[in-house]
Amino acid sequence: MPGKRKKFLTEEEQLLQAQQKLLAEEDSRRKKEDMLMQYLKEKLAKEENNTRLNSIKLTQQWRAMMRQAKSQELCRDLEILSQTFERVVDRKDSVIKCLTKDLEEAEEQHCMAFRSHMENVQRLLGLQAARVKRLREEYQLEVSALKEEFDSERELIVQQHAHEISDIKDILFAMEENFAEKEKEALQEFHSSMDEIKNDVLEEKQALRVQLEGAVEALWRQFQVALQQYTDATEERRIAFDALKTRDEKSAREIEAQARRLQRLQDSMASVRARTSALARECEERNQRLREERAAARLHALQGKGALGEQRSRERKRLAVLAEHSHRTNAVLNTVLRKAEQVLKMGEICRRMETEQEKVLPFPPSALTPEEQRDVDTQLAQTPTQQLSQVAARYSSMERFWCRYNKVLLEQLALEHERDALQRENGRLRRALQLYLEGLSLGGDAPALATATAATPIVPVGDARVRRPSYMVVIEAAHVVKHLVPS
């Protein structure tokens, strides 16, 4: 009966039974996954804990080693820096002493030049003062001589004038005496002639009185009347004529004397003016020469002062240029020193990373055959014709450096290729691990991971199978990189 019941199940029961079976399988699978996940989580937590502890221990040991190495390196750096600082300080002290000595010498030269210039200026001022004093004395002497000459000439002229006045007075007195005598003689002659005429007239009158007494008396009366009228009419004119005549003669004599005097005075004034103008021209020429000499001396002093100022400015500029050059040189030397220290530090760091073979043989022998080496030597011995070859020939002494540099560059390229291969291997391993985990989750087999890992064995870089031999590289590293690095 039970078999029949089991045999004759309805579709719903079969479906329900299948669902229960699937649920049971799903529950068992979930339990397995949960157990596996719990196991993996516990294992992962344990590994993480161990990794954390080991990393802490490694970090502590590494820190201790790094502290010790860093302390030693810092001690060496401090010693190097102290020695370098002492050398720099000594060099700067020597430079400062040299500059101080140069400044003192320049200051002494400036003081000597200034003292000599001031002495020359004082000497020139003394010469100028002595010359001005001498010229003033000569001028005073000439002025006194001119005054004495003028006074003597004036006294001479006054004496001559007084003598001439006395002569004129004597002449006038003599002329007056002569005129008085002549007047007396003329008056006597007039009176004598008049007496004679009167006598003759009286005789004739006596002779003719009888004949012409009446007519004569009438005519005489008319004559007397006319004479009286004429005398009365011409008395004032005669007196004025006599006075004017006297004044005319006196004025003529005075005019003649004054004309002679004026002529003499004009001649003396012309001579004095000529001498005065000559003296004025000579004094003006002397003053002009003195002014020109003073201007020349002032110009010479200004030129000397300007030349001294220009020399001082040139020396100051030279000192500034020297200070600037020393500062630039100091900066360049400090830069070179820093670069050298960096190179030394990099050399120390690189020397720590060198292998024993590189320490023993820093420059490995050439891998070329003797024939190839001879060809290379022959080509190097030839005179380069191209510009690049000429530039490269200048740095032929750095051939060993370029050999080591090319070797390091080739090793870097090999390491990069190896890193790429390891990265690809790591990717394959990750994919294999992912497949392995997926197989575990789906209940598959685990040996797939061993198959995947065994396909690509990991070989270390230092292994002899992948280690590259060291060669003496002759070609440039840039050429090697261009042909070896994949694009």
Walkthrough of the structure:
- α6 packs antiparallel against α7 (447-455) and α6 packs parallel to α8 (477-484).
- It contains 8 helices and no strands.
- The protein is 89% helix and 0% strand.
- With 487 residues, it is an all-alpha fold.
- It has helices spanning 2-7, 11-352, 356-360, 370-381, 387-394, 399-442, 447-455, 477-484.
- Residues 23-121 form the Dynein regulatory complex protein 1/2 N-terminal domain.
- Its main location: cytoplasm.
- Residues 396-437 form the Dynein regulatory complex protein 1 C-terminal domain.
Main sheet: strands, sense, barrel: none
Q: Bin the helical content.
A: over 70%
Order of helices and strands: HHHHHHHH
User: How large is the share of residues in beta strands?
Assistant: under 5%
Overall 3D geometry? rod-shaped
Secondary-structure content class = mainly alpha
Give me the count of strands: 0
Radius of gyration: 76 Å
Distance between the termini: 81 Å
Low-confidence stretches: 1-6, 446-487
Mean pLDDT comes to: 78
